[in-house]
Specification:
- Belongs to the DNA mismatch repair MutL/HexB family.
- It is found in: Nucleus.
- 32% of the residues lie in helices and 25% in strands.
- It contains nine helices and 16 strands.
- Helix 1 (12-23) crosses helix 3, helix 5 (168-185) runs antiparallel to helix 6 (210-218) and helix 8 runs parallel beside helix 9.
- The radius of gyration is 22 Å and the shape is globular.
- The structure holds adenosine-5'-diphosphate and magnesium ion.
- Adenosine-5'-diphosphate is lined by residues 33, 37-38, 41, 62, 64-67, 75, 81-83, 97-104, 147.
C-alpha cells in the first residue's frame, strides 16, 4: 500500500515563479505588458530592441511619466500598482494595468533592469531586480525623461519553458504582431521595433493615422483596399470602429486585429462571425484583413479571466456579434454595389 504524501507549503519563490510562468508564456506576452505600461504612462514614442526573439534581450524605451525614484524599491513586488486601489475600481478601469503583477512576474523569470526619470527629478535612476526585489543599490545616472526597461535571459530559471521556445524567429514573429497591432491601434504613438544592431523592422511616426500605419506594417496592397466602419449602439453600450478590406482583396492567410476596450485580444467567436460574412464575397479559402476596435461598458467586460489577459469575457456576446456582422455586411454590400455602378457608368 502507498503511504499518502505529506502536504507541505511551497516556498514563496517557487509559487511566484509558477505564477510568473502563467502570466508570461513567451517573450511577446512580456512585451505586451511592457507596452501597456508605457501607454498607461502617457508615452507617445516607444522604441523596442530585441535579441534572439526576445529570449536573450528585450528592451523598451518610452518617453512617459517615468517612475518616482522613491517607488523604485517596491515597483517589482507582486501586487504593487499605482492604478488600482480597491476591487470596485476594476469596474471602471481605464488603464491597461491594474494588478501590479507584470514587472513582478518578469523579475521572477528574467534579469530586469529599470532606468527611469520623471520630469521633476534632476537625474535618472537605475535599478536591477531579481525575484521581485532590488538587487543592489539604486544608482543615480544620466537619462532622458521616461522609462527604459531591459529584460535579459527570459526563462533562465524555467528550463522546460526555455526548451519549449526554441525558435527565436517564431518568437520574433509574435513580437512583430504585438508591436504592429498596438502601433495600428495607437496611431498617435510612434513605435519602433528593431533587432539589436540591425535595421528597424517597424517604424511608425508620432501622430500617424491608422491607414498609414497599416501601410507601413502590412503593405499598400492591404492599405489601399480598406473601408472604414463605424457603429454605435447606446442600448448595448457598444461602440465599434475599424478598417476592413473590401471584397477586391483576398489573401490565403487572413489577419484579424481585435481590440476590446483597447486591449489586444482574440475571440474565436468574433473571428468566425467575421469570416462567415466574408465567405459570401470571397473565393473559397480566401481571407480578409480586419481591424476592429470594440468599446464596451467596462462593467460588462471581465478582463480577469485569463492570466495573460488575452481572452476577455463580455456580456451580451450574441447580440454584439450580430451587430458586428451587420455592420461589416452593410459596408461590404454598399461598396460592392458602388463598384458595380462605377463600372457601368
Ligand atoms: P500594473 O500595470 O498592473 O500597475 P505593473 O507591474 O505592470 O503593474 O507595473 C507596476 C507599476 O510600475 C505601475 O502601476 C506603474 O506605476 C509603474 N510602471 C511600470 N512601467 C512603467 C512605465 N513604463 N512608465 C511609468 N511607470 C511605470
Ligand atoms: Mg502593467
Amino acid at each position: 500500500m502507498c503511504e499518502p504524501g505529506i502536504i507541505r507549503k511551497l516556498d514563496e519563490e517557487v509559487v511566484n515563479r509558477i505564477a510568473a510562468g502563467e502570466i508570461v508564456q513567451r517573450p511577446a506576452n512580456a512585451l505586451k505588458e511592457l507596452i501597456e505600461n508605457s501607454l498607461d504612462a502617457h508615452s507617445n514614442n516607444i522604441i523596442i530592441t530585441v535579441k534572439a526573439g526576445g529570449l536573450k534581450y528585450l528592451q523598451i524605451q518610452d518617453n512617459g511619466t517615468g517612475i518616482r525614484s522613491d517607488n523604485l524599491d517596491i515597483v517589482c513586488e507582486r501586487f504593487t500598482t499605482s492604478k488600482l486601489k480597491q476591487y470596485e475600481d476594476l469596474q471602471a478601469i481605464s488603464t491597461y494595468g491594474f494588478r501590479g503583477e507584470a514587472l513582478a512576474s518578469i523579475s521572477h523569470i528574467a534579469h530586469l533592469t529599470i532606468l527611469t526619470k520623471t520630469a521633476n527629478e534632476k537625474c535618472a535612476y537605475k535599478a536591477s531586480y531579481e525575484n521581485g526585489k532590488l538587487k543592489g543599490p539604486i544608482k543615480p545616472c544620466a537619462g532622458n525623461n521616461g522609462t527604459q526597461i531591459t529584460v535579459e535571459d527570459l526563462f533562465y530559471n524555467v528550463i522546460a519553458r526555455k526548451r519549449a521556445l526554441r525558435s527565436p524567429n517564431e518568437e520574433y514573429t509574435h513580437i512583430m504582431e504585438v508591436v504592429g497591432g498596438y502601433a495600428i491601434h495607437n496611431s498617435h504613438v510612434g513605435f519602433t521595433l528593431k533587432k539589436f544592431g540591425e535595421n528597424t523592422d517597424i517604424k511608425t511616426p508620432i501622430k500617424s493615422s491608422v491607414i498609414d500605419n497599416v501601410r507601413i506594417i502590412h503593405g499598400n496592397t492591404i492599405a489601399r483596399e480598406l473601408l472604414e466602419i463605424e457603429y454605435c449602439d447606446p442600448k448595448l453600450h457598444l461602440k465599434l470602429n475599424g478598417y476592413i478590406t473590401n471584397v477586391n482583396y483576398s489573401h490565403k492567410k487572413g489577419a484579424m486585429l481585435l481590440f476590446i476596450n483597447h486591449r489586444l485580444v482574440d475571440s474565436i467567436s468574433i473571428r468566425k462571425a467575421v469570416d462567415s460574412v466574408y465567405a459570401t464575397y470571397l473565393p473559397k479559402n480566401a481571407h480578409s484583413f480586419v481591424y476592429l476596435s470594440i468599446e464596451l461598458d467596462p462593467k460588462n467586460v471581465d478582463v480577469n479571466v485569463h492570466p495573460t489577459k488575452h481572452e476577455v469575457q463580455f456580456l451580451y456576446e450574441e447580440q454584439i456579434i450580430e451587430k458586428i456582422k451587420n455592420t461589416i455586411e452593410k459596408k461590404l454590400l454598399s461598396c460592392n454595389s458602388s463598384r458595380v455602378m462605377y463600372t457601368q457608368a
